[in-house]
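[audit] Reproducing an earlier prediction to check determinism. Same input, same settings, fresh worker. If the C-alpha cells differ from the archived copy the diff job will pick it up downstream; this log only records the rerun itself.
[audit] input (212 residues):
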Amino acid sequence: MFALKRNQVIITALVVMVGAAGYLNYVGNNSTEPTEVVLTDDGDITGLVPDYDLYGEEVVHNTDEENKTTPANATASNDSSEDEAGKAVFVNNSNDTSYFVQAKLEREQARAKQKDILTEMINNDNIEKEKKATAADEMLKIQERIEKETAAEAMIEAKGFKEVYVRIDNDTVDVVVNKTELSEAEIAQIEDIVKRKTGVTVDKIRISPIKK
C-alpha cells in the first residue's frame, strides 16, 4: 500500500509539472504573438519592437523629409544671405560713417595686437636684452604712428572734411576722405597737412575719396 501511494504521488507530481510547463508555454506564446503588433485607435502600429528600432524608423523618415525639404530651405537661406549681403553692401556704400568707424576699429585692433606681442617679448626673461631693446623701440614707433595719424585726421577734419581715415605703414601713408571727388586744391591741402604731421614725403602719400 505504501509503495502504491508513493507511485501515485510521483505520477501526480509529474502531471503537475507537465501541466505547468504546458501552461507557461501557452502563456509565452500568447504574450509574444498577439502583442507583437497592436493597432491603436489612432491607426499607428506599435508593439514590442525595441525602442531603438522605432526611433530609428522615425529618424529615417525624418531624415528623408529633411532631405526633401533641404534644397528649398537651402535656397531660402541662400536667398536670405544674398539679400543680407546686398543690404550690407548697400549700407556700406550709402552709410559712409560705418566705413570710417570700421576702418579705425581695425586699425586700433591691429596696433593693440602688435603692442601685446612686443610687451610679451619685453617681459620674457628668456629673450636677450638687445631684442628687448628692439621691441621697446618698435613699441615707441607704434605709439608715434598712432599720435601722427590722430593729429593728421584732426587737422584735415578741421579744414572742412567731414570724416577722414589716415594710416601709416612703414614709409607710406594712406588717406581716405568722405568725399566722392577731390579738387586739385583739396588734394594739395591734404598732402600738405599729412606731410607736416607725419614727416612723409608727398610721393609716399596716397589719397582716396570714398566711392559711392
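[audit] rerun output stored. Observation attached for the diff report: The first strand starts at residue 37 and ends at 39.
[audit] end
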